[in-house]
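Narrative of activities, Objective 1.

The group set out to show that a structural description can be obtained from nothing but a protein's sequence at a throughput compatible with the screening campaign. Below is one input-output pair from the validation batch, recorded exactly as produced.
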Amino acid sequence: MTPYPDLQKKKEILINAVEAYHKLGYELPKVACLACKETVDPKMPETTDARALQEMCQRGELGKCAVIGPLSYDIAMSREIAAIKKYDFEYCEDFDILLQPNIHAGILWANAG
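Output recorded for this entry:
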C-alpha cells in the first residue's frame, strides 16, 4: 500500500493492475483515474497525474488498457450524473479499475457507497 503515490508509483500500480486483469481474461481493462474534478488544474497534482497517465496509456506505456482522467467518482459511476454534468465518455459505469489519488480519497469514496 502506498498512502501518497507520486506519478511514477501510480504508473507502477496501474501497470500491475492491468497485468492482473489481463491474467483474469480482460482484453482491455478500463481505468478511471479519480480526482475531485474532471479538468486539469496545475495546483492539484492528482489532476495532472491523472492526465499524464491517460497520455501514457495513449502512447502505449501502460499495456493494453483504456485510461480516462482526471475523473470524479460520481461521473465515473453514473451515466445519469455524467449526462447532467454534460460529460460524455465511452466507459461510464463500466470501469474495471478505479485508481485513487491517495489513501484518504480511496477510503472516503469506498465508504460513500
